[in-house]
UniProtKB/TrEMBL annotation, chains A, B:
Listed EC numbers: 1.1.1.85
Gene Ontology annotations for the cellular component aspect, listed alphabetically: cytoplasm
Gene: leuB
Subunit structure: Homodimer.
Residues reported in the UniProt entry to bind Mg(2+): 215, 239, 243
GO biological process: L-leucine biosynthetic process
Cofactor binding note of this UniProt entry: Binds 1 Mg(2+) or Mn(2+) ion per subunit.
Family stated for the protein in its record: Belongs to the isocitrate and isopropylmalate dehydrogenases family. LeuB type 2 subfamily.
Record-given protein name: 3-isopropylmalate dehydrogenase
Length: 342, 342
């Protein structure tokens, strides 16, 4: 019996999560869910972000589904570092998986780009780099102030995510893997990444590899998205690249993500890339597709490959059948996709 | 008498620089130029990157025009850190200015985006952040390896570039300035940047301000480039954002940049954003427009505002008159623009 922790969160989070669960229940009846009240609301009410006891409970689940957390009243960093990144780090989510696919029926902002032209996946490292929270501040608020941020990169951390990306590339038809970094400037980390990439690549002789600087890759995402199949990169570069990837494949309303611990030692966490969108909260017009696609990633991770494929196919069909330019009703999207997978 | 140091560099560098100088000479006859042989060729021949004596000579000029340096035979970082960044840091080029404008006659890869929709300038910090070369490596080549990169940010460094950006925004019709950072994750540096932004903003009450995370900004560059007027950001974010900006406004062949020391204590350096493009070197087909637009930035910096405007207008006219889809001949572009400004 699958045991899912659900963090609806703030804003549209609970609205889109409800639809994700509707679809999950339709395709795989009987998943047990436990709701956790975490996010801005709890923070405002109690000052708590993620009590240890809650973290321990979460650890006991098979997976976590998260909607979105945050509102403009919470100081920057509090929920990000105290909740989202805390869980990514505590549960060792070293593969932050973000597929980018332009579905039939969805319009890319890129001229002349058709469905099929964009179909790649970014494997973003999730537990190292500039996200570790290393750094400090000297003489804060004075003219002498110095603020630092440190990117920490370990051989084992880099190697495991690169190996994961190679094996994903190997299982795809094109077998192409692009490493993105900035090795001409960030020479220490860049050298570690590219040396490890070359070494691990020897285990995957059938995968074609390429290196791109992050600035060039950001450009190519816009000018030649067809180039990409699997992309592996560090935490911060991955953050930026996956938002560009979302933009070119129809927007953040469709972008799914999985914070994955491939060893399954800890639960993986699945969440749409978008935020809590306070401006449209409560109107019933948030597109739950990104969450539903995140449910597909969740199913795949838990070994329910057929169900995962079914959900993705149902999403594809639903997108293809939508009235161009018409808005969505959150619950109708969930109903339609649930019906397709039942 | 203006005294210009010229670093043609490698690949197409000397080809595009020749056209930049042709235009410069046409619009402002009598600029004295001195050529400096720096880049991959010199490195391969002598092992030298930037001898102190050459750096001292460069320091004696009013400005520097650089084509492009590098070839695939030079290890990553050698010329970047030993020459380009060395000069940016030594000559305190704290304003890395990168305009993005979609000219009439140029096709954006973005659907439905017309000339006039993209007209913004990125003020990228040029002397701090992750570009300072701080960091190290432990146990290199072993399973225990750890590689670090450190971002250093000083109040004075952040303040001066933010003030520059505000004053550029104030002199533009829209008076809009966007700060881009990642303050929800890079809390130390992000807080310094956004606090300083708020404080300096009080000196410019007529400038409308906005903050965006770098991932969101990267997305908006693609989905809503009309939003932007002036953007100020740190060194690495600026590197990425300006390549996206170049991509959406017709490609790196048109993207100009100025590494500017506004105090004029040291010479500023102007260069196209593109690289040495070994694949098209010697064919006479490199587009020198980015270099010519960099010459416009150079003229503006040196106080020759009318000449700068003339060059930019001539480039705009030339682009508007080009046969759509036809390739360019490097020297013909230079001839045509030089004729227009004479
Ligand atoms: C909210 C923030 C901490 C997060 C990140 O930077 O990873 C988000 O942008 C994402 O991409 O999941
Ligand atoms: C070549 C490299 C060091 C440089 C940078 O990263 O600044 C380049 O990408 C640029 O944008 O001028």
């Amino acid at each position: 019996m699958t045991n899912l922790a659900v963090i609806g969160g703030d804003g549209i989070g609970p609205e889109v999560v409800a639809e994700g669960l509707k679809v999950l229940n339709a395709v795989l009846p009987g998943v047990e869910t436990t709701d956790y009240d975490l996010g801005a609301r709890r923070y405002h009410a109690t000052g708590e972000v993620l009590p240890d006891s809650v973290q321990n409970e979460l650890a006991g689940h098979d997976a976590i589904l998260l909607g979105a957390v945050g509102d403009p009243g919470v100081p920057p960093g509090v929920l990000e570092r105290g909740l989202l990144l805390k869980l990514r780090f505590a549960f060792d989510h070293y593969v932050n998986l973000r597929p980018a696919r332009l579905y039939e029926g969805v319009t890319s902002p890129l001229a002349g780009v058709k469905p099929g032209d964009i179909d790649f996946v970014v494997v973003r490292e999730g537990t190292e780099g500039l996200y570790v929270g290393a750094g400090g501040v000297l003489a804060k608020g004075t003219p002498r102030e110095v603020a630092t941020e440190e990117s920490l990169n370990s051989r084992s951390g880099v190697e495991r995510v690169i190996r994961d990306a190679f094996s994903r590339a190997q299982s795809r038809p094109r077998r192409h893997l692009t490493l993105v970094h900035k090795q001409n400037v960030l020479v220490n980390a860049g050298n570690l990444w590219s040396r490890t990439f070359t070494e691990v690549g020897k285990e995957f002789p059938d995968v074609v590899t390429e290196y791109q600087h992050v600035d060039a890759a950001s450009m190519f995402f816009v000018t030649q998205p067809q180039r990409f199949d699997v992309v592996v990169t560090d935490n911060l570069f991955g953050d930026i690249l996956t938002d560009i990837a979302a933009a070119i494949s129809g927007g953040i309303g469709l972008a799914a993500s999985g914070n994955i611990n491939p060893t399954k030692e800890y639960p993986s966490m699945f969440e749409p890339v978008h935020g809590s969108a306070p401006d449209i909260t409560g109107k019933g017009i948030a597109d739950p597709t990104a969450t539903i696609l995140s449910v597909a990633l969740l199913l795949d991770h838990l070994g329910h490959t057929d169900e995962a494929d079914k959900v993705e196919a149902a999403v594809a069909d639903d997108l293809a059948a939508r009235e161009p330019g018409a808005g969505v009703r959150t619950s109708e999207v969930g109903d339609r996709i649930a019906a397709r997978v039942s």
